[in-house]
Amino acid sequence: MDILKQLREVTLSVLPIGLFTIILSLLLGVMDSAQLGRFLLSCLLVIGGLTLFLSGVDVGLIPIGTKIGATLTRSRNLPLMLAASVALGMIITIPEPDVQVLATQVHAVRPGVSVGSLVVAIAIGVGIFFSISIARTILKLPMKIIFLLSYISIFSIAAFSDDFFVSIAFDSGGATTGPLSVPFIMALGMGVAALRKHDDEAEFGYVALSSIGPVIAVLVLGLSSAGGTEIEAAAEAEAVIPLSELFSSKFVEVGISLLPLVAVCLLLQLLFMKMPRIEATRAFVGIAYAYIGIVLFFTGVEYSFSEVARELGDALILISPALLYAVGFVFGLCVVLAEPAVMVLTEQVEDVSEGRIPRRIMLVALALGVGLAVVMALVRTVHSLSIWTFLLPGYILIMLFMIRTPGLFSAIGFDSGGVATGPMSSTFLLPFAMGAASGSSEATLASSFGIIAMIAMMPILVIELLGIIYQTRVRKAEKEAAG
After folding, report:
1. Three-class DSSP category at 449
2. Alpha-carbon distance 274 to 271, whole Å?
3. What is the structure's pLDDT at 316?
4. Tell me, what's the pLDDT at 231?
5. Region of 355 on the Ramachandran plot (φ > 0 left; ψ -120 to 50 alpha; else beta)
6. 348 falls in which pLDDT band (50, 70, 90)?
7. How far apart are CA 390 and CA 326, in angstroms?
8. Does residue 275 come out as left (phi exceeding 0), alpha (psi in the -120 to 50 range) or beta?
9. What's the N-to-C CA distance of the chain in angstroms?
10. Residue 414 CB neighbour total at 10 angstroms
11. 406 or 48: whose pLDDT is higher?
C-alpha cells in the first residue's frame, strides 16, 4: 500500500483549490478566524479521508474486482455474467461518495426527491448499463452504435422531462464515475476484456456506458410522481454541527451503505474466488481503510468545505459576475491539472497515438475545456438559462465528431468524461454554483445543477477532436510514405 503516494496525489488535488479559496475568502471577508479554522480542519479531513479511501480501494476493492471479473469470465455463462454485473454495479454505486454528495445537494433544493430514491435510481442505471458494457465486449457489438442509440434514448426521454431533472440526470452520470466505482468497474471490465485479445477498444468504454444508465434512470424518476412539481427549498444557513456528532452519524450511514458490498464480496470469496487467507485478509483490510476514509471525507465535506464554497460563490456574484466567471475558470483549471486520473489518461492517449498527441498538449486542452465548462455552467446558473442551451449543441457535436473519430478514441473520450468529474466537482464546484445562484436575483437554486454534466461533456469533445487530428496525421504520414 503506497499510502504516501496517495497522500501526495490527493494533497495536490485539494491544496490548490483550498489555498485559492482561503486567499479569496479572506480578501472578500467571507471567513472569520473561526470559519478559517473549521475550513482548514475540513481540508485536512478531506485530504486524509480521500488518501485512506483510495489506498483502501487499491489494496481491497481493485484486487477483489479483478478476481470477480476473472471468475465470471471463466464461467462462460453469459446470463450469469450479466446478472452478476447488474448486481455488482448497483452495490458498488450506493456507497459512492460523489453520488451521495450529489443526492444530498439535490434533496436540499427539492425536498420531495429523497436521497435514497435518487441513489437507488442511479445505482439501478449503473447496474443495467454495466451489464450492457459486458455484453458489448462478449458479443463484439460496435461501441459507436451503442453510444448513438443510448443518447438518442436519453434525449427522447429528456424532451418530456422537467429542466431540473435533465440537469441532475446528466450530473448523476458524471458523479457516478467516482473514486470508488471507477476502479472496481474497470477491474471487472478488464477481466472480461481478456476474452478479446489484440482488441484495444475492448479495454475501454465500461465507465462511459455505466455512466449513461444513471442519466436515463434519473430522467425516468423525474417523469414519475416523485418528480418535478416540488417547490424549491430556500437556502438557509445551517447551524454548525459538532465534529464528533457529525463523525458518528457518517460512521453509521456509510457503514449501512457499504454493508451489502462487503457481504457480497465475502460470499463470493467463500463460494467462488477462494483467495488465499493472506490475500483475502489484505483485501478486507483495504475495505476497512476505504470505510474509514469515506467517513472522514464526508465529515470534512459537511463540516465546512462545501459551506465555504457556497459562501464564496454568493460573495463573488454580488461583486461582479465577470469576477465569478474568472474565479470559476481558475477552479476548473485546478480541478483538471491536479486530478491524478487525468495524468493517467494523458499518458494513455499519448501511448495509443504513438506520440502523435503529446500528453502536454492534451493536458492543456482538457484544462481549458473544463475551465470553459465551469464558466458556461456559471453563466447558465446566473441567468437561469435552460440546460438545453448547452447540452444539446454539445452532444450534437459529440455525435457528429464520433462519425470521424477512430473507435478507440471515442471509447477513451467517453471514459474521460468521468475522469474530470472527480470529488471536487460535487463537493466544491456544485456548492460554489449554488452560492452564486443564491446571490443572483435572476437565478434559482435549481439552475445551479448541470455543472457536473458540463464538466463531463467537454473532455469527450476534446479527445474526439484530438482523435480526428491523430487520424489526419496518420493518413498524411501514410500518403507521404507511399508517395
Report:
1. coil
2. 7
3. 93
4. 47
5. left
6. low
7. 19
8. beta
9. 53
10. 26
11. 48
Residue 200 has pLDDT above 70, yes or no: no
Burial class (CB in 10 A: 0-12, 13-18, 19+), 400: exposed
300 and 250 in contact (C-beta within 8 Å)?
no
Burial of 459 (0-12, 13-18, 19+ CB in 10 A): buried
Q: What does DSSP assign to residue 438?
A: H
CA distance 162 to 381: 16
* Integer Cα distance of 109 and 115 in angstroms: 11
Report which DSSP code applies to 455. H
Distance from C-alpha of 452 to C-alpha of 454, rounded to nearest angstrom: 5
Residue among 153, 119, 128, 155 at smallest CA distance from 209? 128
Helical (H) or strand (E) element with 134:
helix 115-139
Determine the longest span between alpha carbons in the chain, in angstroms: 74
Q: Report how far apart, in Å, the C-alpha atoms of 156 and of each of 52, 83, 307 are.
A: 42, 27, 36
Amino acid in position 418: G
* pLDDT (tens digit per residue) in 85-139: 898 889 888 888 889 889 988 988 888 889 999 999 999 999 999 899 888 888 8
- Is 436 in contact with 313 (CB distance < 8 Å)? yes
* Phi, psi values for residue 82, rounded to 5°: -70, -40
Query: How far is Cα 112 from Cα 377, in angstroms, rounded to an integer?
Result: 24
For residue 244, give the amino acid letter. S
DSSP percent split of the chain into helix, strand, coil, nearest 5: 85, 0, 15
Q: Which three cell numbers stand for residue 7?
A: 497522500
Evaluate whether 135 touches 84 at the Cβ level (below 8 Å). no
The predicted pLDDT at position 4 comes to 85
Q: Which positions ≥6 away from 5 have C-beta within 8 Å?
A: none
Q: DSSP readout, 191-226?
A: HHHTTSTT-GGGGS-HHHHHHHHHHHHHHHHHHSTT
> What does the block give as the cell for 155?
434525449
In this structure, how many other beta carbons lie within 10 angstroms of the beta carbon of residue 149?
Answer: 10
pLDDT given for residue 393 in this prediction:
93
Q: Give, in degrees to the nearest 5, the angle at Cα 166 between 161 and 170.
A: 145
Main-chain dihedrals φ then ψ at residue 29, nearest 5 degrees: 75, 25
Q: If pLDDT is split at 50, 70 and 90, which confidence band does 234 have?
A: very low
